[in-house]
Design a protein that fits this description.
This protein is an alpha/beta fold. 45% of the residues lie in helices and 10% in strands. This is Methyltransferase domain-containing protein.
């Protein structure tokens, strides 16, 4: 189900009657606990309790960090030199992933790390200029990102050459500046040969071992990094995937796809609705209650607008709804509504007109038509949407689990008997919902 189609398809009526009755009488706070922790009120139907239990039982363990205790806090002090531009979330992610990459590089005897989708180069700089002291090739598809990374690289070098760094015992040497190289390249599912060639050209010593890494590599980029590992002589890979909704699937004419990669998942197709659901961060709903409730309301308004457009023959019932995206406060404030209605009815009317304006749609409903549409469903409709979104989002981690397992099986299919493949939670799932890292190492030569 796509939440926009909720009213048009009469999705609520497809749920068991006992589920409908239960959801229409509980507080929305119970939905947040259900999604975040799996807790279900004692009065819930047994079939609903079983569904929630299964969704939690079948997912991966997204809690904890295998690397949290690695190296202790030995890097905490020197991390100060690399904080420029990093928010607290990014700081933790870079610290933990750089620890892991350093460990894997050492175990796999790698003399070069290729950071794919390097962006502003946060991870690259820590790997190259901290005590990890790893030669790094930072690759990104955006020239703007590369220029930004190079500017920040010079700022970091300036700090490392300063008096504080000298007092801290860094002992900066000019030749270390060459330890980090930047290049612009689009890395796709069909460009793995070019990526390997770039790595070989960047090697400090010819014919040495190298590895790939990526922090929150978006959509197919994660699959492309893993494919590059499999199809090259790279010794290891460590990647944290992100943005599952941008993963491509079969069928695509004579083109590689991001899912499935493994022979074990061959023939399975998830679809865009499922991939989008995998992006839901239910683990943080409880701790971000206000934002979650606001998201429920946005989904409600968007589904109501689609219902209104179908009712007035502006879009066919079975047609794909136009993508509105987030309607900003500025766009809402540009709409003036004059109608005798409640604040909620006026809020929906304002949203509907602002969304249609954003879509450059020629049709505009009257304020009275918008109010009538809202009154048809009222607060009950919001409660129903919230429950349906919760039920749908509970399956998100299970879809993510399928993606992770597919990628892990793909790596295992192509690693030698002496190699290793693992997938585990690296970050806190509340602050970093996309927290699973995939690691593969070929056996040492």
């Amino acid at each position: 189900m796509h939440i926009v189609d909720f009213f048009v398809t009469k999705f609520w009526q497809t749920l068991p009657a006992e589920w409908q009755e239960y959801f229409e009488q509980i507080e929305m706070s119970s939905l947040l606990s259900m999604a975040s922790t799996g807790q279900v009120d004692a009065g819930a139907p047994e079939s609903l309790r079983s569904y929630v239990k299964d969704m939690f039982r079948l997912r991966l363990n997204y809690q904890g960090s295998r690397m949290a205790a690695a190296d202790g806090d030995s890097q905490q002090g020197e991390l100060w030199y690399f904080l420029d531009g990093m928010n607290p979330k990014k700081q933790v992610e870079v610290k933990l992933l750089s620890q892991l990459v350093s460990t894997v590089a050492k175990e796999s005897q790698c003399s070069l790390v290729v950071d794919v989708g390097a962006g502003q180069g946060y991870l690259s700089r820590v790997l190259a200029y901290s005590s990890y002291n790893l030669p790094v090739l930072a690759i990104d598809s955006s020239p703007k990102q590369q220029r930004g990374a190079e500017t920040m690289q010079q700022r970091t070098i300036k700090r490392l050459r300063g008096s504080r760094a000298t007092q801290d015992g860094f002992g900066w040497k000019a030749e270390r500046a060459q330890q980090l190289q930047h290049t612009v390249m689009h890395v796709g599912l069909d460009s793995t040969n070019q990526l390997a060639a770039k790595a070989h050209n960047a090697m400090p010593v010819a014919n040495t071992r190298w590895m790939l890494c990526g922090l929150h590599a978006c959509g197919d980029l994660s699959s492309a990094i893993l494919k590059a590992f499999v199809e090259s002589d790279a010794a290891a890979v460590a990647v944290v995937p992100c943005c599952y909704n941008h993963i491509s699937e079969a069928p695509r004419e004579s083109a590689a796809v991001g899912f499935p990669l493994s022979s074990g998942m061959h023939g399975i197709q998830l679809g865009q609705n499922a991939l989008k659901t995998a992006c839901q961060a239910t683990s943080r709903w409880d701790s971000c209650a206000e934002a979650t409730l606001a998201a429920f309301r946005r989904n409600y308004f968007r589904a109501l607008l689609h219902h209104l457009m179908v009712a007035h023959n502006q879009v066919a019932p079975n047609a794909m709804a136009p993508a509105v995206g987030k309607v900003t406060n500025t766009e809402l404030q540009a709409i003036s509504v004059s109608v005798d209605a409640s604040s909620d009815e006026i809020a929906f009317t304002t949203y509907a007109l602002a969304a249609l304006t954003k879509l450059n749609h020629a049709w505009r409903p009257t304020a009275e038509q918008c109010v009538e549409c809202y009154r048809e469903h009222g607060s009950t409709g919001l409660q129903q949407i919230a429950a349906a979104w919760t039920l749908k989002s509970l399956a998100g981690p299970l879809v993510e689990c399928m993606l992770v397992v597919d990628r892990a099986m793909y790596l295992a299919e192509h690693c030698s008997a002496s190699g290793r493949v693992s997938a585990f939670a690296l970050f806190d799932p509340v602050t970093s919902p996309r927290n699973v890292v995939l690691v593969a190492q070929r056996g040492n030569a």
